Amino acid sequence: MTRAPHYPLEGVASWNMNTTCNYRCSYCTQRFVDDRGQWARDLPRFIAGFLALPGDWEIKLSGGEPFRHPDLLGCVRALADGGRRVSVVTNLSAPLDELIEFAAITAARPGLISASLHLEYTTPEAMIEKLTALAPHHRGKTVVTCVATRASLPRLPAIAAEFAAAGLRFRVQPEKQDREVIDYADDERDVLIQLGGHNGTGAIAPSFEGRPCWAGARYLIVDHQGEAYRCYPARRQRAERLGNLLDGSLRLASEATPCRYQYCNCTVPQQRGMVMGGA
Ligand code: SF4
Ligand code: SF4
After folding, report:
1. How crowded is residue 175: how many other Cβ atoms within 10 Å of its Cβ?
2. Which ligand has its closest atom nearest to the C-alpha of 18?
């Protein structure tokens, strides 16, 4: 069996804190969720749960659209005051002053702003303008991602060049339907690979099946009700549940264990060296 990577000093919890979103993208993986109006309500218990995680952690906020959570900034402040690094995955539609406030609150330990470009609702130019205005306030990393639908794929090389010219990292994410990457044609796959593959990993559907991965020990995902799973494929299959962050039942693994999944769409473990062979 492949050797496990070194113990990741900083763990990462991806928190899907709400299903609420102001967009309705045609390819949204949450569009079949029964209720798109749910959000994490008992914030003090969530904050206490995240601050109680053992060791050093980054909390990566996503949704839905986290800036649609009614107390997003209060929540970010409480996590940052507790010493957690806070990152966010956002469609960047929030007003600029709210984005600047997020950057100010997280300035002591800045995280990642992952801005998702949704071409059904906004333009590359509008996003570049907003990120350029935000740049002097945000000391952490910024990345722009875009789902490569069949309709958008032909435009993406030019869009990638636009972001590169603005000094911004641009990554593509293959479209999924029914939880699987869509059946791209060979020429479409070539374009995707030229654009870096899934989130810059170089592959369209990365697989680490059988390899030791720290997800479940130093990475986990938590939903708006506190339910915790090892990673996104685990949650999809309702496997490797870790318990609930809110009721004291959360149990993290103590070491890296073999990946059980054929397809890994979890960017964090791949990009943070939590699984051997990641980007
Ligand atoms: S912005 Fe994200 S969460 Fe909202 S509809 Fe689009 S893909 Fe879904
Ligand atoms: S699917 Fe990805 S994150 Fe999950 S255990 Fe496998 S390699 Fe780790």
Report:
1. 18
2. 1
